[in-house]
């Protein structure tokens, strides 16, 4: 476990010599102290990544692919250690952490191949003496600002795409979970990546705004990729205006989960468990609002109550645990606030509703019924193990409720009526729709949202697009 930042293939301290603590959210104990870097440190990172870019971009796509494949194999070989590290600093159950490492490695493998398929075009000319060509070239130095909920996968999903097409990277991981980022760099170093291609800057919450602002203001950093809150995303957009920087943003969600009368209720319950309680509800595509049609409402609630009551809170290293802690106490307090608000507006607690201790980061899986759509838990992303259930009567009611929010990342439909599935899917204002399935993430598919959930797509064949510039060449006066 590294307790230094990573720059230019070297393990470094902050210029100031300062560090900050990394805590285990299950126990509250300090597990590491890493450098608390700032904008002065960032200048060195930018200089090194810029110098490395000219060499890295000059390699063939096959050469870059080979580096990525070596990195992929090392991640696979060290899967168990990487998973334990995620559990220690993030809190998620070890089985969930293992799945994340596999998901993380998958992006490296995918983009190792996808980088070799960046094709240009020859456009038919209207003149016999001219030829029109289109090239795609790497944008340059890229800044990656990544979250704590998937401390490994959110890095590889961005970084592997950038590296595959010839960009260099400066990663600023969340202050909550920097250790997974450093571990990935340790393996990248073993894979033989050249100096300055992959870099990780670690900093505390206090220094993060200034570092993010400096990334935006730098004329050398050509692109920033950010996964996190809509609030911070808007700040990055404003700060990047001066340099007209290329951005890709995967921001907050408020996913509706719609269960229609004709749905397979057991399948729908399984979808809630898989989608809502993964990482204790701390994922951007977690179902945030359950919309259940009146005729099947009571039966669905009983089935869901039975399934949720089997979930087990505990330290993620305990094999019996299915629900780890939330990342910090502020996250628990937000869930409790949403519950209190909903109850004050008529909601009923069916299950859970409490945190086992004033200082604990654990939160009971909670089900609410009779929820008003004006409650905080329907208007705001809870990011915790809270299931608010709203009744609806007609299909159009569900669509109206689902679309009445500024977010548009993911949505879910459970129905056995294929015509209804098509109608509703096309009307939902989200970038992704899960149909009779809540496990919608995969390396092969485009991940991203609409409205205030951001723009750009990660993963899939589209994932390299945001790291490429299109250059048009006009060749004239040809003797053909």
TrEMBL record:
Q: How does it assemble?
A: Homotetramer.
Q: Which gene encodes it?
A: 20217600
Q: Where is the active site?
A: 250
Pathway the protein takes part in: Amino-acid degradation; 4-aminobutanoate degradation
Role noted for this protein? Catalyzes one step in the degradation of the inhibitory neurotransmitter gamma-aminobutyric acid (GABA).
- Keywords assigned: Mitochondrion, NAD, Oxidoreductase
Name a single GO biological process.
gamma-aminobutyric acid catabolic process
Protein name in UniProt? Succinate-semialdehyde dehydrogenase
Record InterPro entries: Ald_DH/histidinol_DH, Ald_DH_C, Ald_DH_CS_GLU, Ald_DH_N, Aldehyde_DH_dom, Aldehyde_DH_Superfamily, Succ_semiAld_DH
Principal subcellular localisation of the protein? mitochondrion
Q: Which family does it belong to?
A: Belongs to the aldehyde dehydrogenase family.
The record ties this protein, via NCBIfam families, to: SSADH
Q: Which residues form a coiled coil?
A: none
Q: Which Pfam families does this entry report, sorted A to Z? A: Aldedh
Q: Which GO terms describe its cellular component?
A: mitochondrion
């Amino acid at each position: 476990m590294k307790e230094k930042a990573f720059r230019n293939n070297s393990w470094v301290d902050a210029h100031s010599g300062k560090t900050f603590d990394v805590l285990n959210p299950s126990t509250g104990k300090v597990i590491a102290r890493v450098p608390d870097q700032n904008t002065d440190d960032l200048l060195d990172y930018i200089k090194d990544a810029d110098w490395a870019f000219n060499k890295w971009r000059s390699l063939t796509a096959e050469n870059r692919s080979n580096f990525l494949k070596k990195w992929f194999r090392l991640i696979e070989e060290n899967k168990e250690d990487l998973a334990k590290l995620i559990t220690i600093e993030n809190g998620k159950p070890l089985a969930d952490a293992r799945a994340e490492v596999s998901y993380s490695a998958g992006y490296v493998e995918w983009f190792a191949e996808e980088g070799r398929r960046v094709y240009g075009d020859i456009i038919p000319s209207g003149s016999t003496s001219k030829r029109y060509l289109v090239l795609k070239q790497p944008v340059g130095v890229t800044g990656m600002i990544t979250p704590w909920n998937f401390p490994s996968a959110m890095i590889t999903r961005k970084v592997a795409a950038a590296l595959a097409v010839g960009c260099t990277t400066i990663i600023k991981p969340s202050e909550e979970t920097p250790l997974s980022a450093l571990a990935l760099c340790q393996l990248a170093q073993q894979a033989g990546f050249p100096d300055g291609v992959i870099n990780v800057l670690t900093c505390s919450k206090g220094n993060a705004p200034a570092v993010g602002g400096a990334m935006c203001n730098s004329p050398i950093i050509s692109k920033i990729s950010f996964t996190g809150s809509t609030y911070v995303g808007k700040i990055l957009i404003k700060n990047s205006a001066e340099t007209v920087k290329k951005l890709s943003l995967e921001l907050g969600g408020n996913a509706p989960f719609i269960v229609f009368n004709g749905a397979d209720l057991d399948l729908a319950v399984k979808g809630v468990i898989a989608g809502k309680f993964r990482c204790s509800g701390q994922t951007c595509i977690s179902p945030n609002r359950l919309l259940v049609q009146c005729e099947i409402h009571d039966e669905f609630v009983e089935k869901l109550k039975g399934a949720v009551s089997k979930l087990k809170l505990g330290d993620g290293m305990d094999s019996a645990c299915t629900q780890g802690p939330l990342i910090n106490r502020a996250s628990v307090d937000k869930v409790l606030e949403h519950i209190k608000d909903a109850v004050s507006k008529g909601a009923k607690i069916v299950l859970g509703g409490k945190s086992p201790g004033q200082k604990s980061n654990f939160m009971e899986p909670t089900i609410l019924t009779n929820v008003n759509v004006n409650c905080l838990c329907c208007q705001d992303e809870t990011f915790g193990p809270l299931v608010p259930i709203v009744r609806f009567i007609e299909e159009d009611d569900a669509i109206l409720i689902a679309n009445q929010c500024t977010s548009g990342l993911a949505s879910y439909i459970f129905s056995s009526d294929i015509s209804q599935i098509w109608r509703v899917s096309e009307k939902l204002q989200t970038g992704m729709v899960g149909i009779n399935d809540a496990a919608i993430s995969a390396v092969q598919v485009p991940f991203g949202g609409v409205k205030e959930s951001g723009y750009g797509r990660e993963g899939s064949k589209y994932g390299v697009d945001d790291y490429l510039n299109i250059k048009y060449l006009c060749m004239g006066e040809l003797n053909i």
